[in-house]
């Protein structure tokens, strides 16, 4: 009834009411208690009606869904001895969730930052990317600190120093004067905490990559492939602790980010993303990768039942991104682009919505998932790895991630319509820094 009255009044005196409600839309009109007044709510309704007249570019739900699925896979895979990990992507081909995450990071980064580069210039675009890099760095350091506190407490409480050794945190205890500054400059990286440092450096490459991409897709792909080849075949990499350097070599993995960005730019410009003639080879390669990995060998009694030798292709390098892994993720992306339309009805189902919300808030969900995987591992070490415990660990962990993603989505929605969302001060100020 309030909205109806507003529309009737707006029709009588449009100019005066427009000025009135614009004044009411200012932050000062919102009560600090987090409860909206009737006038503020009325202003919000008018603002929503005005915004609804503008054309809205639909978000590709496929990006959110598959990125969210990759994040859930990462959570499951990071729990040693987890039976559910036998069902994740890494058991069905050469690539795993990390490749999906980086490829879609390039795709979404191009869509997120290209308008800033085009409308406000290269400096403004680079500045916006730099702010995102800073956010990633803060979240990474925070995750390392919380992981150290969490596993140190578990090691002391259960008298199990292996909890620190599990991801290489013992270096903090034994040599803090070395570990702290090395971790601060990303030289010292802990096991399972090395994806965000990779993403930080990949985003640092993004402005240069975008500048090249604007000249030519072929140019940026040739240069990116040359850098990858120098890493994969020539040993180009970054030093780090432990002595073998970065687990994810950024000089190699930048190719995957570039491929994702090029794909997004083609979509943005309404250029064809795939050709039907290439779909059968892509499907054949994905099937070949599955046959080599042989996921059914994890079933008791079928351990030695293989159609192809497991060592047929030798070691499939992850650090320097083996070409087998690149081809696999490209083939899977090709199949998804060809066979899963953005308008697919199942993408709007409640279950898919939970996964998509995780993908929409990838940074927060990744960091929280990492901490939950460490907690789940400790629980399984202390309570046992029986089926009941594993079901409980996976169910609770995935539920917490889903609920957190829902909260973040509601919080963002509240801000987008000018409302003050009820807040939990500690959760908002420490774990959830204000979004830009």
Automatic annotation (TrEMBL):
The chain crosses the membrane at residues 65-85, 91-113, 134-158, 195-213, 218-238, 244-264, 276-297, 326-347, 359-379, 391-409. It holds the Pfam family OpgC_C. Keywords: Membrane, Transmembrane, Transmembrane helix. InterPro entries: UCP028704_OpgC. The keyword Transmembrane helix applies. This is OpgC protein. It comes from Candidatus Filomicrobium marinum.
């Amino acid at each position: 009834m309030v909205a109806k009255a507003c529309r009737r009044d707006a029709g009588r005196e449009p100019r005066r009411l427009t000025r009135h409600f614009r004044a009411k839309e200012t932050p000062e009109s919102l009560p600090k208690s987090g409860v909206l007044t009737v006038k503020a709510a009325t202003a919000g309704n008018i603002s929503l009606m005005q915004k609804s007249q503008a054309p809205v570019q639909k978000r590709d739900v496929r990006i959110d869904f598959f990125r969210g699925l990759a994040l859930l896979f990462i959570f499951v895979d990071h729990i040693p001895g987890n039976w559910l990990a036998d069902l994740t992507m890494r058991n069905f081909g050469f690539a795993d969730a990390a490749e999906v995450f980086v490829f879609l990071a390039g795709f979404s980064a191009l869509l997120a930052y290209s308008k800033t580069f085009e409308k406000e210039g290269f400096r403004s675009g680079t500045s916006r990317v730099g702010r995102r890099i800073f956010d990633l760095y803060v979240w990474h350091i925070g995750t390392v600190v919380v992981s150290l506190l969490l596993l140190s407490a578990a090691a002391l409480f259960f008298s199990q120093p292996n909890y620190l050794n599990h991801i290489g945190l013992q270096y903090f205890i034994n040599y803090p004067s070395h570990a702290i500054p090395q971790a601060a400059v990303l030289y010292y990286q802990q096991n399972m905490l090395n994806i965000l440092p990779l993403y930080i450096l990949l985003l640092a490459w993004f402005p240069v990559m975008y500048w090249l991409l604007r000249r030519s897709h072929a140019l940026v792909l040739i240069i990116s492939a040359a850098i990858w080849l120098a890493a994969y075949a020539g040993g180009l990499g970054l030093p780090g602790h432990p002595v073998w350097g970065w687990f994810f070599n950024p000089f190699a993995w930048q190719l995957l980010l570039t491929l994702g960005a090029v794909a997004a730019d083609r979509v943005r410009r309404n250029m064809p993303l795939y050709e039907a003639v290439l779909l059968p080879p892509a499907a054949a390669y994905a099937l070949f990768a599955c046959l080599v990995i042989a996921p059914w060998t994890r079933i008791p009694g079928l351990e030695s039942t293989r159609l192809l030798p497991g060592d047929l292709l030798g070691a499939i390098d992850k650090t320097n991104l083996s070409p087998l892994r690149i081809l696999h993720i490209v083939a899977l992306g090709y199949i998804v682009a060809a066979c899963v339309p953005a308008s697919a009805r199942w993408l709007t189902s409640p279950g898919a919505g939970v996964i998509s919300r995780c993908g929409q808030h990838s940074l927060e969900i990744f960091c929280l998932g990492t901490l939950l995987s460490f907690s789940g591992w400790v629980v399984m070490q202390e309570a046992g790895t029986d089926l009941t415990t594993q079901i409980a660990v996976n169910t609770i962990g995935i539920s917490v991630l889903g609920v957190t993603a829902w909260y973040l989505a509601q919080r963002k929605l509240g801000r987008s319509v000018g409302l003050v969302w009820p807040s939990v001060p500690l959760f908002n100020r420490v774990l959830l820094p204000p979004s830009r």
